[in-house]
Amino acid sequence: MAEARKHTEVAVGILIREADEALLLSTRPEGKPYAGYWEFPGGKIEPGESIEQALRRELHEELGITIAGVEVWKTTEHDYPHALVRLHWCKVRAWDGEFEMREGQAIRWQQLPLDVTPVLPGALPVLDWLAQERGLAGTAY
Predict the structure, then answer these.
(1) What mean pLDDT comes out for the span 58-70?
(2) Is 16's pLDDT higher than 80?
(3) What's the predicted TM-score (pTM) here?
(4) 27 closest CA partner among 79, 91, 103
(5) Which of 21, 56, 62, 94 could form a disulfide with 68, with the two C-beta atoms 3.0–4.6 Å apart?
(6) Residues ≥6 apart with Cβ < 8 Å to 135
(7) DSSP state of 121
């Protein structure tokens, strides 16, 4: 009998720019599964960390910013070939610092529908929910 796969817990930041409600997406770095795909920034939750603590750490490590408040919004699961992930989606509307691409990734501020592709499959339902919240018909990507 096959052993059940354990979930990898991941904190994900949906950074929303105040001026125009644009969303920040970044590319997955070379050497990681799905390298070059666009995603929302974030990373694995370490043992003993809360979702907010993990997101603060990851966004500082990846982007060089310090986030203010975090709104833990939704949780989804996605079964990738390399990992079964539980994604804890958090809205972030305020941060300090200048963006630094510390992992060699690209970043882009995006309106819906997105003009970047391909998008990491686990993010697609969240993009649809964001579009619905904004009253947008049709696809968000």
Answers:
(1) 96
(2) yes
(3) 0.94
(4) 103
(5) 94
(6) none
(7) G
Q: Which amino acid is at 64?
A: G
User: 13 pLDDT band (50/70/90 cuts)?
Assistant: very high
Segments forming the whole domain that contains residue 12? 7-133
d(CA 134, CA 129): 9
The CATH number covering residue 77 comes to: 3.90.79.10
Q: Would you call 3 exposed, middle or buried from its count of C-beta atoms within 10 A (0-12, 13-18, 19+)?
A: exposed
Domain count, the chain: 1
Q: Please choose, from the candidates 30, 6, 10, the residue with its C-alpha nearest in 3D space to the C-alpha of residue 126.
A: 10
Question: Is 1 part of any domain?
Answer: no
Place of tokens 């059940």: 4
Q: How many angstroms separate the CA atoms of 76 and 64, rounded?
A: 26
